[in-house]
Amino acid sequence: GHFLRNTIRQFAAFRRIGFGIRTGPSEKEIALRLGRGPSPRRSPECFRGAGGPSHPEGFRLKVSGDEIEILARDERGLAHGLFYLERMMELRGAPILPFLQSSIIPRFDLRLHCDVWGGYTVTPRWLDVPHRQETFLLMARHGLNAVQLRGKLSDFFHDSRYPEISNPQWKRNLAQLRRLVAQAGGCGLQIILHADNFRLPPDHPLFKRKPKLKGAPIFTGVICPICTSGQEGLDLIADGWARVFRETPGLGGMIAIVGGE
């Protein structure tokens, strides 16, 4: 998959830049294997029965005089095994490893980083700033598997019943989100939306046409959210986000924030 291929390229660059090794690792040097673990009675903690590492990001590392073997259940474990080798080499300042046999599993299933683009007031610009694969891969190298993105429902909303708040750029913005999800996924990361609902001025045309959708004023009365005390407001928000997730396969989830009320 893309994650493992990107990690192998990263590992080759690490060897070349860090130690002047110009060629990639040969099959005799590093064996990346998907397979089953040892029998249950002799199984280390990261193996369950005959199914290999129980955690998809877990791996077994064996360094011998003949080869370096990384055994994992899927490519995420293999990729994290290569990252582990990099850290061991960095600690020694040389491409040297001790003979060992070890099983590694992450302590937490979700390892979420704050927004990669900066602080809370900066991140709404995610639609306009460049995104580098190297940034995502560096995060994965440090053990992360998710990053949050402050996404506003107003970036993606389109509903003929509510033309006042429909975004004319909704198709472009969803396409950009899909590209970002694919780019992060190719580095072993999921995008978790820090989801902001609508925050509208009190005299917004939507509230004039549908006053029951006007929520309690917040932030000294300068904005009002969509009211969630009525079914229409709840449906507007739920349907809007459901459409985003249907249109963006691979999104990892959301951190729900209702807009202040």
Give the DSSP E fraction (strand runs of 2 or more residues): 15-25%
Main sheet summary: 4 strands, mixed
Shape: elongated
Average predicted confidence as pLDDT = 84
Biggest sheet: strands side by side, in what order? 1-3-2-4
- Bin the helical content: 25-40%
What is the H/E order? HEEEHEEHEHHEEHEHE
Structural class: alpha/beta
Radius of gyration over C-alpha positions, nearest whole angstrom: 24 Å
Terminal CA distance: 43 Å
Poorly predicted regions are 37-52
Summed up, the helix count is 7
Number of strands: 10
What does this entry look like structurally?
The protein has 261 residues and is an alpha/beta fold. The chain is 33% helix and 17% strand. It contains 7 helices and 10 strands. The protein has helices at residues 2-19, 75-92, 133-141, 153-156, 170-185, 205-209, 231-247, and strands at 30-34, 59-63, 68-72, 100-104, 112-113, 146-152, 190-196, 199-200, 224-225, 253-257. The strands form 3 sheets. The chain has a 4-stranded mixed β-sheet with strand order 1-3-2-4, covered by helices on one side. Strand 2 (59-63) and strand 3 form a beta hairpin. The longest helix has 18 residues, at 2-19. It is elongated and about 75 Å long. Mean pLDDT is 84; it is low at 37-52.
Features:
261 residues; four-stranded parallel beta sheet; alpha/beta; 7 helices; four-stranded mixed beta sheet
Task: Break the fold down into its secondary structure elements and pairings.
Elements: H1 2-19, E1 30-34, E2 59-63, E3 68-72, H2 75-92, E4 100-104, E5 112-113, H3 133-141, E6 146-152, H4 153-156, H5 170-185, E7 190-196, E8 199-200, H6 205-209, E9 224-225, H7 231-247, E10 253-257
Parallel strand pairs: 1-3, 5-6, 6-7, 7-10
Antiparallel strand pairs: 2-3, 2-4, 8-9
